[in-house]
Amino acid sequence: MGNDGSLVRYGQSVMFTLKPMIGLTESNAEDPPEQPLYLASDLEHLCDPVCQPGIQPLYFEYAKPSFAAQWRIEAADPKLRLEFEGRPVRLDEKVIIKHVRTNKSLALEPNCQIRNVFGRDLNVSANTYYDSHKAERDVNIWTLTSARQPGVPGDNRIANRAALPATADNTSWECDVAHHTPCGHQAA
């Protein structure tokens, strides 16, 4: 489910948000800033610092998202995409995440490693890789999980796991996403 309680559906415009602790200081530790970051992408620019030329970089927009932060979820099987259009997205299903503005898929870049404080990570970009049958390759296929999903480690929002409902029909995507209409305005 999204922030407003409605189901996230295939083909619907969504935004991926991250609520960071960037602005956390001793003075506001009790009431941290609530400005989320929005996953966004745009066309490649001349001065973009990327590992490989030709890939569309990702970045985070702060507080106020633009059209570049809108994504669409599609079924991983190209033969089922039209059939799945409008159906609720289920957790742990294989999906393709496409950028609305450029129609490029979210991809893991196996040939581009980035060093950070945690070690080596692989880069993520918006770039569609096709196999010989013109279907997306495995680097474009993702599975969605939710922090609210029972059994997912690291859920510190709920101290008592017994308080979580254990229903078999709780399979909709419950990540923190904002719903937007096709014209880009936030839905009520």
From TrEMBL:
One of its GO terms (biological process) is cilium assembly. It comes from the Eukaryota. It holds the Pfam family CFAP161. One of its GO terms (cellular component) is motile cilium. This is Uncharacterized protein. The lineage of its organism: Eukaryota, Metazoa, Spiralia, Lophotrochozoa, Platyhelminthes.
